[in-house]
Amino acid sequence: MMRIRRRGASAAVAGGLGLALALTACSGGDDSGDEGTSGGGDTGAANEIDCSAYDEFGDLDGKTVSVYTSIVEPEQQTQEDSYDPFEECTGVTVEYEGSREFEAQLLVRIQAGNAPDIAYLPQPGLLNTIVTDFPDAIVPAPDATVANVDEFFSESWKNYGTVDGTFYAAPLGANVKSYVWYSPSMFEDAGYEVPETWDDLIALSDQIVDDGGMPWCAGVESGDATGWPGTDWIEDVVLRTAGPDVYDQWYTHEIPFNDPQIIDAWDTVGDILKNDKYVNAGLGGVDSIATTPWTDAGFPILDGTCWLHRAANFYQTQWPEGTEVAPDGDVYAFYLPTNQTDIKPVLGGGEFVAAFDDRPEVQAFQTYLSSADWANTKAKTTPMGGWVSANNGLDPDNLATEFDQLSAEILADPSSVIRFDASDLMPGEVGAGTFWTAIVNWLTGTSTEEAAQSVEDSWPAS
Question: Glycoprotein: is it a keyword of this entry (predicted)?
Fold first, then answer.
């Protein structure tokens, strides 16, 4: 849906464009329990903002910038709230449109000559596809955005937004995907311990079965993007069984998609997801994974019918209102363990800000989104939690929850071996197409070999 932002909304911000924006007060998380509010701010008395840092953008009053993204409710509201300082100080109206069919519809819109000003691309592979197939559609990032990225992000994150030596898209949010959600109280009552190795995880799953339970719940339905949660499973396990070097060779196609090491990893996932003793707790049989919405797949943990659900940090925002996410709360998450002793692999992801127009107001908005100040504003306008960034200017104290701070620590930890979501780095027709389809087919009866071969056969020749 499209929602047009209005100027004068309550703002919560710190810093300013990597330049000098000052804010006299920030909205907090203590009085912000209702989704759809401006991060708990007082709409009756907007905070005062020093707008002098925006003067360099010139006269933008009355201009509009359209944004198209896959970020929808409940995350959409906090995204929009984070734009308030930019709109208030520049006079620009940001027209936000979130869609669950984003990946499919964006290419249709580009081809029809109806591209948005800005799109948040969740796959670097999709960026590559757009640059390759529509070379005149997307525009390189402006110098001010480049300067922010060089200051606040690592080189690897900048590289994800670069195609053939040209930098197009700055990182926005970041995800830590290597998590397993559970109920701390259920574990305590049953005498279960959080597993520290993959073998421990399987032993725990077997123990739950022996105790009369079904350990895992899962779902991969996501509209036109159905299947993507299953690709995260495969990627996380490739990192754990084959290792980061093989992982890199896999997504770059230096080895075939169906290399034996990838088949082994896929079968390891199958030991869980295609095991009718393990899944699909509270939801049905193995086949139900393909039709269970990913947004709801962890809910059986809340009624005690499921014990374990693998999902990223952003799943925090999917729990029903009132669910406490904390080490002693209703739900929490632990790191998806590995038998590796020399590394701690972490599967990550995120969005990238691509522009299809170089009007001054579009470039100004790109620059704002790449700043440490936007990252801190976004943290403060997300009082319910569920968001982090790889921006090194983000103050972890501004993050709303202990869980978000844990994710930020993992992203910033130099000992973590972080790899970006492989499907997001693959060519768009594979990573956002045939890989998703293969997951669904595999969950509904296709063999591992057939599923992986179908993706390999679809890989573009160049």
Answer: no
Q: Could you tell me how far CA 426 lies from the centroid of its own chain? A: 16
CA dihedral 428, 425, 80, 69 (to 10 degrees): 0
CATH T-level assignment (fold) for domain 55-175+349-411: D-Maltodextrin-Binding Protein; domain 2 (3.40.190)
Closest C-alpha to 302, from 319, 280, 279 = 319
Count Cβ atoms within 10 A of the Cβ of residue 112 and give its class: 0-12 exposed, 13-18 middle, 19 or more buried.
Answer: exposed
Chain-centre distance for alpha carbon 26: 25
179-335+426-457 CATH, one of 3.40.50.10260, 3.90.1150.10, 3.30.2010.30, 3.40.190.10: 3.40.190.10
Beta strands 416-420 and 170-176 are unpaired
Cα separation values, 94 from 22, 284, 433, Å: 22, 43, 30
Q: Which two tokens stand for residue 294?
A: 């990913």
pLDDT in tens, the chain (462 residues): 444 443 333 333 333 444 333 332 232 333 333 333 333 333 333 457 778 778 878 789 999 999 999 999 888 999 999 999 999 999 999 999 999 899 889 999 999 999 999 999 988 888 988 999 998 999 999 999 999 999 998 888 899 999 999 999 999 999 999 999 999 999 999 999 999 999 999 999 999 999 999 999 999 999 989 999 999 999 999 999 999 999 999 999 999 999 999 999 999 999 999 999 999 999 999 999 999 999 999 999 999 999 999 999 989 889 999 999 999 999 999 999 999 988 889 999 999 999 999 999 999 999 999 999 899 999 999 988 889 999 999 999 999 999 999 898 888 776 788 899 999 899 889 998 999 999 999 999 999 999 999 999 999 986
Same fold for the domain at 55-175+349-411 and the one at 179-335+426-457?
Answer: yes
Distance CA 448, CA 446 (A): 7
Alpha helices in 97-179 (DSSP H): 102-111, 124-133, 143-152, 155-160
Inter-residue contact 376 to 369 (CB < 8 Å): no
C-alpha dihedral sign at 424, 382, 72, 184: positive
Kindly list the domain boundaries of the chain, sorted by start residue.
Answer: 55-175+349-411, 179-335+426-457
Phi, psi (degrees; rounded to nearest 5) at 306: -125, 150
Residue 218: CB atoms within 10 Å:
28
Give the end-to-end CA distance of the chain in Å, rounded to a whole number: 36
